[in-house]
Amino acid sequence: MRRAPKSEGKQVLPVSRRRFVQGVAAGGALAVLEGTGWPVYGEPAPHDPPTLTGQDFDLTIDSLPVNFTGRRASAVAVNGTVPGPVLRWREGDSVTLAVTNRLKETTSIHWHGVRVPADMDGVPGLSFRGIAPGETFHYRFPVKQSGTYWYHSHSMFQEQTGLMGALIIEPRGKDPVESDREYVVMLSDWTDANPGTVYSNLKQQSDYYNYHRQTAPGFLAEAKKNGFWRTISDRSAWARMDMSPADIADVSGAIYTYLLNGSSPNANWTGLFRPGERVRLRFINASSMTFFDVRIPGLKMTVVQADGNDIEPVTVDEFRMGVAETYDVVVSPQDAGAYTIFAQSEDRSGYARGTLASSAGRSAVIPPMDPRPQRTMADMGMGNMKGMKAGDMPGMDMGGMNMSGIDGMTAKEMPTSSGDKANQPGMAGMDMGPKTANHDMDAMPEMEMGSNSGTTTFPQPGPATMPIMAMAGTGNDEAKLKASSPVHLHIGPQVDNVAMGVSERLHDPGAGLSGNGRRVLTYADLRARYSGVDGRPPTREIELHLSGNMSRYIWGFNGQKFSGAEPIVLKLGERVRFVLVNDTMMEHPIHLHGLWSELENGHGAFNPYKHTLIVKPAERLSYLISADTPGRWAFHCHLLYHMEAGMFRTVVVQP
Amino acid sequence: MSTLQKLDCQLAWTRLASLSCAIAIAALPFGCAPARAQMSMPQPEGKAVATSQPLGPAMMGDRVFAHILLDQFEGRTGVSGSQLRWDGEGWIGTDMNRIWLKSEGFSDKARVSDGDHEVLYDRPIPRMRYFDAQVGVRADLDSDPARVWAALGIEGMAPYFFQFAPTLYIRNDGNVAGRLTGSYDLLLSQRWIVQPEAELNFYSKDDPGRRIGSGLSDLDAGVRLRYEVRRKFGPYIGFAYNGTYRNTASYSRQAGESTSSRRFVFGLRLWY
Fold first, then answer.
1. I need a labelling partner for B53 at 20 to 30 A (CA). Which of A515, A633, B35, B179 fits?
2. Is residue A330 within 8 Å of A302, Cβ to Cβ?
3. Cβ contact (<8 Å) for A125 and B46?
């Protein structure tokens, strides 16, 4: 374990790799590149994982000695590389993946964001039993979507120890995103420490890896800056709750080395370009616990895809990636030279770094990290509370209070929901034949889709898809919504905070990104390129509060961790609104397996399809789900140790 | 058997008892196999499993953990002599159910004193964020006559990050004792930490055998400055005050001991 949290120190550590690193110099590869002409997608740098294409894949999972930090450690590799090979599938193909386990423990591979039959989803205990040591499991499923995704283990902490890889699915038709060259940019967080120990340490001391806690001398500095009494008042507001505004990330650069395509910052992964080219970068946040803020100083980035779904291009300077999210961006460097791909962790305890260069060996300046963000009382859900002292809240019994009602706002009136209404005119008259048996939603709150043939699995929105069903635009559809049963959340061992005032934060780029002088992507910017395929309004609303007790390191939904909770049951064919309310002071990337999460961000029929959604502290966020694939699906926070600590539910789609 | 021999014998016995208690705590983490059970499901055959088939749930959120914390492991030295002080605790269990072991005491050339060893069942208190209820047994095992108590207390973090643990003890002879411990970590930097700490003991009855009087019996308080080389390894220096009061002070005076001592301390804070 590294002793000091000095991220800068890492750059001078000698990095040598075994087996999957054939050499450090990129020059050799360039020669090859120049000789063979430019391929469609970027030739891998010498230490890049290989790319596998086709329909049949043999993947072997085994342990692998690695050295990312200057010290030897053991990783879990796929086909001998960390990250594992890039898999390239084609939309419309049926793929077979024979996964062989050479570990001494059970393993699994989950295809993150890919809509597969439930038994192919790769979650031990839900979709299958896991892959026992020595066993080969055959995944077989049709590929019905395209875009940038990734795969990772869903067993124990294998994801933290390297079992991950990029998954690219080429569209059947012409890719609407035009580029001359493309690279996968996979970000991850590596630690030499045993993840089981990391988790155990967090249980005993939740700020174990936080070396940015408030200090007494820091008080003096703050007092000088903000005034003595204000500093006293600020600090005591937090201290009364036994919470810290410095609580940004649970696991930090104190033990993490942030990797870009498996390369540490000093190993400097490099992707080559020719001036004037359009370079597509497929960013994947494959880390276990780290939110990354990504930018390429000197280049504008045009975001063209989010979580595998094409969006209306939006040009930004910077974007935040929650764990497990993907963003495709296009950059067009006009001049020869080098540009740093800079991905700093949200807590500014370190960064991943790579380079786009017009020739090998070039590199650009690494920018300094931004100031560390601090949590605010707004993050505690206290921003809207007037005349109330923050410290009075923890003891308050919130039983029976509907949180969403506090600002006098109901789900119906939420800006995020208004998009549904907005899309009604557009949807009118687009009724698609047999799916019209929904005039009386009250009589059929859990309606079946397609009266004779069971259900329809909705396709991914694309240039050829049409909205399958639309409501007759009566305008009172929302009134027929079956509201969620109220969530009674109490302060307790599993709940250290109940946000009093929650709000929509879709326009907020996130902690530490507001007002930094850069155009930063927000969730409000995400507008789907193609209309959503399920035009029905939801018939039911399910409200879930993200809850936890940081100090005890217990996480869950509605004040219950996984082991104490019942599954969420959806009826096959049901259209449901999930409302997430974050009562904790951290962001949580919430991932639902098997079904798309259509974020209600005000774009109506063009609300973006996602598989992982960041919910900010004290945020209320909603999305729609078409429960079109039966089975038992995992629904969880994608922060690995939060998931292990209980922030996990089973969603059952019942035929 | 001479008094001296008797004392020696008793000393050996109490040392042994203290040692075994310490070993028991130290062995905690090793005795606990990871409780994350492997799913005992049939082997995969590479084909579809019906979704209706009951499969075992993952064990998320219900693992067993174990930790030990030796908060004070120190030498104390001053005009009233030198002594060894230990104060540690360990636990094993899940989020909601834990077994705690606590052990503390003093040792010098002649005797072990204030040897207090507890085994407690611990559970978070509903509707409270950071406090656990603890119930169990306390055994006073040292050079003085042994005592066994029932123990009932709470332990946790009070507002403003104060670690706070009041405990009530009851003996079958009707003696009731109370203990109050508190501490606070003041961060000078991310690694330099000042920890003021205090422990007070109260008794309802005199116990001449252990030279303990009723009322406030003793106070042990200190300030320690530690450097966390790592979280789990923090050498420290500090100052400790130990005082006896009321009847306990009388017993001390009768035994020719001072009723208060101020000592320089140096030691290690360790956890596993």
1. B35
2. yes
3. no
